[in-house]
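Good morning N.,

You mentioned wanting to compare the apo and holo forms, so I went ahead and generated the holo version with fe (ii) ion. This is what I fed in:
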Amino acid sequence: MKLNDELKALLNAQVNMEIEAAYQYKAMSAYFEGRELEGFAKWMDAQVQEELGHSKKFYDYLLKREGKIEYFELNKPKADFSSVKEVFEVALAHEQKVTASIENIYKVARNLGDFGVENFLDFFIEEQEEEEETVKKIIDKITLLNVDNKNVELYLLDKEMGERK
Ligand SMILES: [Fe+2]
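and this is what came out, ligand included:
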């Protein structure tokens, strides 16, 4: 089935959106490096790699369906944060935006009867659920331990975050 023009545009925008997510996570990583919180920085760097991987998946799929890749200008990522908690709140809001965008592509694919795109997006529907849940759990932990006001707790959570493979 020939890929519809609207879907082409949406999938290309998603290639860009995933790179923008990587860009945002990289800025968060730099923020943590600046505060000597290396565990958090490492966790963010793993996110950067994941997002670049997501972008590549959309890129490969779009090319496979004979679409064209067009890169957009990137928005400047948010780089200043008032607390560790704020970083993850911004991350969650960003992931929710990505989820909404992917769900929108899914809807368009469904309306057009493009089962291939739907099938391709299934991975991302699940992935976004996981991403949001993971970030929510980290926010819960940050709140519970009150790491923004307690140095020992912050130190310990930083260590735990750094254990991410
Ligand atoms: Fe992503």
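Residues 115-145 form the longest helix (31 residues).

Happy to go through it together on a call whenever suits you.

Best,
F.
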